[in-house]
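Quick one:
INPUT:
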């Protein structure tokens, strides 16, 4: 499978909305906001511009097939912690794309001097959990009934974390 990894740019907004529309709602539950809405993409772009988020996309023939973000709050009490968000098209899973994006974000996190990374997902996303655990993330918390899908069904949210090497 061919793809190019690069930074998410303001000119990618329409392509990101098209990508988000291809994802099952269940894949989006960990984000806190529904990525299928233009205002969410606008806020994301604003946070990138302000330096709060580093975001990468993988594209194939001009179409976004995956997205990854490192979210930071350098002014907060947890300024040393970054949150990783990773989304891969269902048809592109299992081929290493998510791992490539995650490795790229680990490099960005290291460059920012972060001490800890977290990632959240619903507890039934076994492949995602395995990917993160394979890169030294460990289960840190399960938040019962923490996210609710549009059908009203609540799902548990798993929080994984990893310490970053110093130096």
């Amino acid at each position: 499978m061919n793809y190019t990894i690069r930074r998410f740019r303001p000119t990618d907004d329409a392509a990101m909305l098209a990508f988000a529309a291809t994802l099952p709602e269940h894949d989006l539950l960990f984000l806190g906001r529904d990525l299928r809405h233009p205002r969410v993409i606008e806020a994301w772009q604003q946070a990138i511009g302000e330096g709060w988020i580093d975001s990468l996309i993988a594209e194939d023939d001009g179409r976004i097939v995956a997205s990854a973000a490192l979210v930071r709050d350098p002014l907060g009490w947890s300024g040393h912690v970054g949150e990783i968000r990773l989304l891969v098209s269902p048809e592109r899973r299992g081929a290493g794309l998510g791992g490539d994006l995650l490795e790229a974000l680990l490099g960005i996190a290291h460059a920012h001097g972060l001490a800890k990374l977290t990632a959240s997902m619903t507890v039934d996303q076994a492949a995602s959990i395995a990917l993160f655990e394979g890169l030294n993330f460990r289960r840190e918390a399960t938040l019962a009934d923490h996210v609710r899908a549009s059908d009203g069904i609540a799902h548990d949210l798993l929080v994984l974390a990893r310490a970053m090497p110093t130096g």
